């Protein structure tokens, strides 16, 4: 029983980690707490659902295209909302508020357009076969989720540390003005980072959609709480921290649901968030925050 | 009272209650933003006040003058719990840690069914919050904010809003002011929630979520936070607007969201760019 719970927790945690990665990347590089990020999660899932139902694409194409669609939405949203604020160096709170207003408008519009009923993938879309080792049951979807997560994390790591674009992204994360002075096309890098973050969020949405098979426009909203808990626990802007914290949170949630009560599960993320803020405000692996005037 | 006035009150009673309650909520948002912070937990604080008030009235039958302060006290405790650690950090932490508060409380309201009525909420709450009480409290709150705003404390808050580091260097105890502002704002939101519960006779677990939190922020941003009156006027406009323009009712949340976007991008000082006047 415990082994099964740990597997389920790992799968859930992998999607949390994937979701949080894009969020923490956005904060780490662009210095924006972007609340529209939850919407990219919904976009990924909704586009995947549409592709699977109406176009009839196979599962790998659905995951990929769902992510790409979310990435493109992220680029457009970032361009419309945040370019102006970035030019005037408006700081963290105005950009947070503008994305907050935008996300309410986006969710409400998509709810008016698509309705809020829960929708599902076609009956035989997801291969429901599973490996069984003794009592332990691991479905193909679960394996897919974990593999996609680790593949994307690996790709992100390679992108950031072994490519020229990655070097530019890290330079931008360090200091925008200096990056500009070094001849880096900051606007282009911002687009790349938005796209990659949106893609990570969107793929997260598709995978969660596949895992629970319940999709509706507001699904990204409840995910944001988890996303924020993970990036705070892991340390804002810390990719390795987000990965570890995401997996840990997933495990804790599943264990809480099975050994305490399923309703207590919803409070785990928030409890962990508040505890982290009290005792390790810079996150589990975070460095001390430097105050700058 | 003239007959047409009677009719008017009868037809628009909920709207009149709503404007008063939303005015208080807008002030609670103003209180946090006046020190340069952003809380997304105002709706959650409101819900705590509403549930505390409704439960004390329904289960214990306490008189309203006991219920009302109690419903300010519970949100204040939660504000202390969250604000204690976050307000020592940079501005975004409070926003992040309050964004999920409403969601967590919703799950609690739904699952503690024996106490909170679960998904059905609590109904049959006696209508103890009269229009005059709501508006009297709103007026008192406005006057108090006005007086505080013109005092030494108000000047300190404005200095923090403009530049936190500089304010700290000038000897302002920044964390204490921020925590104080958050607690006062949580109390106000709790009172507003309690008044709302005792004027609509029903409360449900889904009324205090993300949408409500953003709507409260849109009140403050439409008015701007130059003076305490501006957010109240913002609340007035945004509460009355869907009534006046019925066809827009479905798009109410879309409009509230767009207002925030436009206000931040193009009108950083709000639609009413007023400032408190004070002698040098």
UniProtKB/TrEMBL annotation, chain A:
Q: What is one GO biological process annotated to this record?
A: amino acid transport
Q: Which GO terms describe its cellular component?
A: plasma membrane
Q: Name one GO molecular function term.
A: transmembrane transporter activity
Please give, as recorded in its UniProt entry, the membrane topology of this protein. Answer: Multi-pass membrane protein
- Chief location of this protein? membrane
Keywords of the record: Amino-acid transport, Cell membrane, Membrane, Transmembrane, Transmembrane helix, Transport
**Which chain regions cross the lipid bilayer?**
6-30, 37-53, 59-81, 93-116, 136-160, 188-212, 267-286
Cross-referenced CDD domains: TM_PBP1_LivH_like
Any Pfam family hit: BPD_transp_2
Localization recorded for this chain is:
Cell membrane
For this chain, the family text in UniProt reads: Belongs to the binding-protein-dependent transport system permease family. LivHM subfamily.
| PANTHER family reported for this sequence | AMINO ACID ABC TRANSPORTER PERMEASE PROTEIN (PTHR11795:SF445), BRANCHED-CHAIN AMINO ACID TRANSPORT SYSTEM PERMEASE PROTEIN LIVH (PTHR11795)
Name of the protein in question: Amino acid/amide ABC transporter membrane protein 1, HAAT family
Source organism (scientific name): Roseibium suaedae
Q: What is the lineage of its organism?
A: Bacteria, Pseudomonadati, Pseudomonadota, Alphaproteobacteria, Hyphomicrobiales
UniProtKB/TrEMBL annotation, chain B:
InterPro entries xrefs: ABC_transp_permease, LivM-like
Q: Which residues cross the membrane?
A: 15-33, 40-58, 64-84, 91-109, 129-148, 179-204, 216-241, 253-272
Report the principal subcellular site: membrane
Specify whether Cell membrane is a keyword of the entry: yes
Q: Cite a single GO MF annotation.
A: branched-chain amino acid transmembrane transporter activity
Q: CDD domains under this entry?
A: TM_PBP1_LivM_like (cd06581)
Q: Where in the cell is it found?
A: Cell membrane
Note the superkingdom of the native organism.
Answer: Bacteria
Q: Which GO terms describe its cellular component?
A: plasma membrane
Q: How does it sit in the membrane?
A: Multi-pass membrane protein
Alphabetical UniProt keywords? Cell membrane, Membrane, Transmembrane, Transmembrane helix
UniProt xrefs under PANTHER family: HIGH-AFFINITY BRANCHED-CHAIN AMINO ACID TRANSPORT PROTEIN BRAE, HIGH-AFFINITY BRANCHED-CHAIN AMINO ACID TRANSPORT SYSTEM PERMEASE
| Official protein name in the record | Amino acid/amide ABC transporter membrane protein 2, HAAT family
Record the organism: Roseibium suaedae
């Amino acid at each position: 029983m415990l082994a099964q719970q740990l597997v389920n927790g790992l799968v859930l945690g992998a999607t949390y980690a994937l979701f949080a990665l894009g969020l923490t990347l956005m904060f780490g590089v662009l210095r924006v707490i972007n609340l529209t990020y939850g919407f990219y999660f919904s976009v990924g899932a909704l586009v995947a659902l549409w592709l699977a139902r109406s176009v009839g694409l196979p599962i790998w194409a659905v995951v990929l295209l769902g992510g790409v669609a979310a990435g493109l939405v992220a680029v457009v949203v970032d361009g419309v909302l945040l370019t102006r604020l970035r030019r005037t160096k408006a700081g963290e709170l105005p950009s947070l508020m503008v994305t907050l207003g935008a996300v309410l408008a986006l969710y409400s519009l998509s709810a008016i357009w698509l309705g809020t009923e829960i929708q599902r993938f076609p009956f035989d879309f997801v291969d429901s076969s599973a490996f069984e080792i003794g009592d332990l049951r691991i479905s193909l979807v679960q394996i897919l989720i974990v593999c996609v997560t680790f593949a994307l994390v690996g790709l992100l790591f390679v992108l950031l540390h072994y490519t020229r674009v990655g070097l530019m992204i890290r330079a931008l994360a360090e200091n925008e003005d200096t990056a500009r002075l070094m001849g880096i096309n900051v606007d282009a890098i911002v687009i790349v980072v938005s796209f990659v973050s949106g893609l990570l969020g969107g793929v997260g949405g598709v995978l969660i959609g596949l895992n629970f098979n319940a999709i509706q426009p507001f699904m990204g909203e409840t995910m944001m709480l988890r996303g924020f808990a993970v990036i705070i626990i892991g340390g804002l802007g810390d990719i390795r921290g987000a990965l570890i914290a995401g997996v840990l949170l997933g495990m804790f949630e599943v264990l809480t649901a099975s050994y305490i009560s399923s309703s207590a599960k919803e409070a785990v993320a928030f409890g962990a968030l508040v505890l982290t803020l009290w005792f390790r405000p810079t996150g589990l692996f975070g460095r001390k925050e430097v105050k700058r005037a | 009272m003239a007959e047409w006035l009677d009719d008017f009150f009868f037809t628009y009673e909920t709207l009149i209650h709503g404007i008063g309650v939303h005015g208080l909520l807008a002030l609670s948002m103003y209180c946090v933003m006046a020190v340069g912070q952003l809380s997304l937990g105002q709706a959650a604080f409101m819900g705590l006040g509403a549930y505390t008030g409704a439960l004390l009235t329904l289960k214990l039958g306490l008189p309203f003058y006991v219920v009302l302060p109690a419903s300010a006290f519970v949100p204040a405790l939660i504000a202390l719990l969250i604000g204690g650690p976050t307000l020592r950090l940079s501005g975004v932490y409070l926003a992040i840690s309050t964004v999920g508060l409403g969601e967590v409380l919703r799950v609690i309201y739904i699952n503690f069914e024996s106490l909170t009525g679960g998904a059905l909420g609590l109904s049959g709450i006696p209508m103890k919050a009269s229009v005059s009480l709501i508006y009297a409290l709103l007026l008192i709150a406005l006057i108090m904010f006005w007086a505080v705003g013109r005092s030494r404390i108000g000047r300190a808050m404005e200095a923090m809003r403009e530049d936190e580091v500089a304010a700290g260097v000038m000897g302002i105890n920044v964390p204490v002011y921020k925590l104080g502002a958050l607690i006062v704002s949580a109390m106000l939101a709790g009172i507003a929630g309690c008044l709302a519960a005792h004027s609509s006779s029903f409360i449900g677990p889904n009324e205090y979520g993300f949408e409500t939190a953003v709507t409260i922020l849109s009140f403050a941003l439409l008015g701007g936070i130059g003076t305490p009156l501006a957010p109240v006027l913002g609340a007035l406009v945004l509460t009355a607007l869907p009534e006046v323009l019925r066809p827009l009712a479905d798009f109410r949340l879309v409009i509230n969201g767009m207002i925030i976007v436009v206000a931040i991008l193009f009108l950083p000082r709000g639609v009413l760019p007023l400032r408190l006047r004070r002698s040098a």
